[in-house]
């Protein structure tokens, strides 16, 4: 069961969403708030959610700083950002900060539930209307393929090991068993890999690693085995 923290300025929205999610057997709202930044961090520390669902209005232009502090308080949490407007600049900032998903509220609660389950399985999700700009921005920062820049230089030794096993098509528990670490540690390293490499999915991480020449057989395996 996924533990959720809901953070939104609109009390009615949070209450309606909490009531809807109570009917889903695999989702549990551990806490909710109508917040200040301090309240968000404190509630995350106590609730220790798997996923924090946060309205972009709470984060504003300080999205990177707030999400960085949230990760310090609760390292394993994955963030789904809700938005009432289409703002590709804020979407890029959220992606840079490591947000796993960016979902317009107009998409509806049923689609939110699907996204929560995807994120809970380690995937990421951004809508088509902002995805292009997000990917372009992150690709520019990652640097062009075929240069002398090693895209894996930012990764720790353990993160490289996790990425190598991930590229074989193995998932959380399998990676944990092979590397003799906990599933939570795998999730933490996976998030670190995606954030440091400035990508959204495990497939992109594997492809970027392959383009740097560090893992020669990575790309073909990744295309066959990893989620898209």
TrEMBL record:
<feature type="domain" description="HTH luxR-type">
    <location>
        <begin position="148"/>
        <end position="213"/>
    </location>
</feature>
<keyword id="KW-0238">DNA-binding</keyword>
<dbReference type="InterPro" id="IPR000792">
    <property type="entry name" value="Tscrpt_reg_LuxR_C"/>
</dbReference>
<dbReference type="Pfam" id="PF00072">
    <property type="entry name" value="Response_reg"/>
</dbReference>
<protein>
    <submittedName>
        <fullName>Two component transcriptional regulator, LuxR family</fullName>
    </submittedName>
</protein>
<dbReference type="Pfam" id="PF00196">
    <property type="entry name" value="GerE"/>
</dbReference>
<dbReference type="InterPro" id="IPR001789">
    <property type="entry name" value="Sig_transdc_resp-reg_receiver"/>
</dbReference>
<dbReference type="GO" id="GO:0006355">
    <property type="term" value="P:regulation of DNA-templated transcription"/>
</dbReference>
<dbReference type="InterPro" id="IPR011006">
    <property type="entry name" value="CheY-like_superfamily"/>
</dbReference>
<keyword id="KW-0805">Transcription regulation</keyword>
<keyword id="KW-0804">Transcription</keyword>
<dbReference type="GO" id="GO:0003677">
    <property type="term" value="F:DNA binding"/>
</dbReference>
<keyword id="KW-0597">Phosphoprotein</keyword>
<feature type="domain" description="Response regulatory">
    <location>
        <begin position="3"/>
        <end position="120"/>
    </location>
</feature>
<dbReference type="GO" id="GO:0000160">
    <property type="term" value="P:phosphorelay signal transduction system"/>
</dbReference>
<feature type="modified residue" description="4-aspartylphosphate">
    <location>
        <position position="55"/>
    </location>
</feature>
<dbReference type="InterPro" id="IPR016032">
    <property type="entry name" value="Sig_transdc_resp-reg_C-effctor"/>
</dbReference>
